[in-house]
Design brief:
The chain is mainly α and 416 residues long. It folds into two domains: 210 residues, MFS general substrate transporter like domains (Growth Hormone, Chain: A, Up-down Bundle), CATH 1.20.1250; 176 residues, Growth Hormone, Chain: A. 77% of the residues lie in helices and 0% in strands. The protein has 18 helices and no strands. Helix 2 packs parallel to helix 5, helix 3 runs antiparallel to helix 7 and helix 16 runs antiparallel to helix 17. The chain is globular and about 55 Å long. Keywords: Membrane, Transmembrane, Transmembrane helix.
Length: 416
Amino acid sequence: MNPLDPHAPSDSSAVRADAAPGANDAMPASVAAAADSSAPSCAIGARERLSTRIAFFVAGVAMAAWAPLVPYAKARTGVDEGTLGLLLLALGAGSIAAMPLTGALAARYGCRKVILLAGAAVCACLPLLAYCASVPGLALALFGFGAAIGTIDVAINIQAVIVEKAGGRALMSGFHGFFSVGGIAGAGLVGGLLWWQATPLTAALAAAVALAVLLLAGSQGLLRYGAGGGGAMFALPRGAVALIGALCFVVFLAEGAMLDWSALLLVSARGVDSSAAGIGYAAFALAMTVGRFNGDRIVQRFGPRRVQAVGGACAALGFLLAAALPSPIATLLGFVLIGLGCSNIVPILFSAAGQQRAMPAAAAISAVSTLGYAGILAGPAAIGAIARIGGLPLAFALLGLALVAVAAGARIARQA
């Protein structure tokens, strides 16, 4: 929410911006294309900025609300980790199916209609995720949920690009920070209700009602127009862009692992009760939020290459700590290190994609975005397959080793 954080190629400040955990860091080409065209001229001010922040917050809540429900869905369907990983592919498939279409929909019908309709779909799908007991039913619910989340992600970023350009100053990082705050709130709300012995369906219904109220409260400042569409949906990466995209793939895979598997690791390997398992993702999201709200200042002081290297090492240490030590406290500490480490890597990589000379910036950012989101799509199945063979701790340890490569790739990526 994962997130998928787009970085508009037409604005250098937007290229530096970042979003939240799991699934909101990647920008589909439809956003890049939409952002490149001029929007209808009208006054954009504080109301539009507030509505944009609320929309990002809602997207974060929606995505994170699913994390505490994962162990319950696994128990309800009776599947193992490998099958659950395949099921979770449906969420990513839904997002990828919807994202390329959203730019054109926003251009035709406006950001407001697209965001509100996708938000309504999220509110409808959340209870289904907590109710479906059959594998086909859960797969369909996950596909619909993923499509709605992907649509919101693209539409709110189109709105954010327009609002930022109208403001004449960098606003994107702050918008995406609200996605992270929403992630904390979503995991806290659903996890807290489950801890208080609410049923998964009750917790999901409460989250859906809260999302609907927030969307309606912030709807007045949502733009009734989008931006012009057009341009290629995808460009094959080449040269340095392929390396940057590969690094993005790993980071997105790691963030997706936290969304889909952190609660299950606490339950299955650390003995934490299912009702309290949502605290793992909440700890990760809180750490990432802190890192993102301080990211611009940190990068300005120490430089992007050093921040990426240290961030990759920090995240790798977090995964290894969570995998190696049996204590739930140590696992939670590892999740915090992962959040802090990953928080600023993606904006640094997108900045590098915008500065490299192997491809035009817009094509490069679109390609890197697509590769990054492929990490979210492939991650659940890959981690599930490894967990089936050697357990979730082994899968988390291998992710830690992959993030060592991200740290080591900092010099090459910045020289691109």
